[in-house]
Write a structure and sequence with these properties.
Elements: E1 5-7, H1 16-22, H2 27-33, E2 44-45, E3 52-61, H3 67-75, E4 81-85, E5 93-95, H4 97-105, E6 110-117, H5 120-125, E7 130-135, E8 146-148, E9 152-154, E10 157-159, E11 164-168, E12 171-175, H6 180-202, H7 209-217
Parallel strand pairs: 1-8, 3-4, 4-6, 5-6, 6-7
Antiparallel strand pairs: 2-7, 3-8, 3-11, 9-10, 11-12
């Protein structure tokens, strides 16, 4: 029996309809609904910018090795986000232009990598979503071990296979599979509330009562 070197069968994933609803929602709003304690702050967009969302196809690999990432590209279904736990080590790149081009051609929605990429200029010039922790010119090894469709940790953020990944210029967030529908509903309401607040500001009628109400509740004193 192989330990730490296996490809597990995917058992669930968020629906395309739910992913489409999240497409209109800023990641910051989703984060607020999730009590502002979820997600990762270390991974940044390496592409030209834009939203990424889809069910997580998870990969755990030895730092600096991308053999299982290659297999994940072959296994991915259109719309999947390949999420790679490479231990946060930045010495060797996990993907570059060739792998990102292949993944895009195969219908992969994008990459989230707790590790480095290379060919940064080419990836930055494109629109295919790639979020990563850094850049390194050193290439990867292809020896394994690793696992596909297992629970992983991305900079402390737990990702289960089939969870929803959403990412934009503000960062990356994992929405748990069994909470994704309810979080979407609450985030839609949060977005509508913020849009209303912006319209009030533009109209010159912002409601600022909450500031003094909060100061009073917290016991703030005015002193000469």
């Amino acid at each position: 029996m192989a330990i730490g070197f296996a490809i597990h069968k995917a058992k669930r994933k968020v629906s395309p309809d739910l992913v489409a609803r999240y497409r209109t929602l800023p990641v910051a709003n989703v984060s607020d609904v999730m009590s502002r304690i979820a997600g990762t702050n270390r991974l940044r967009p390496m592409h030209g910018g834009g939203w990424l969302g889809g069910p997580a196809l998870t990969v755990k690999t030895r730092p600096g090795d991308n053999l299982m990432v290659h297999k994940a590209i072959d296994l991915a279904q259109p719309g999947d986000v390949i999420v790679v736990d490479a231990g946060g080590v930045l010495v060797n790149a996990i993907i570059g232009e060739i792998m990102s081009t292949l993944a895009e051609k195969n219908g992969v929605a994008g990459f989230v990598i707790d590790g480095s990429i290379r060919d940064a200029g080419a990836i930055r010039a494109g629109s295919f979503p790639v979020f990563a922790a850094g850049v390194a010119h050193r290439g990867p090894y292809k020896d394994g071990p690793g696992e596909i469709n297992c629970a992983i940790s991305i900079d402390g953020m737990i990702v289960e296979p089939g969870d929803l990944i959403v990412a934009d210029d503000d960062g990356v967030l994992c929405v748990p599979y069994d909470q994704a529908a309810e979080i979407c509903k609450q985030t839609e309401a949060k977005k509508a509330s913020e849009e209303k607040a912006i319209q009030q500001i533009l109209a010159g009628t912002p409601d600022r009562r909450w500031v003094d109400e909060t100061l009073a509740r917290l016991g703030c004193e005015y002193k000469d």
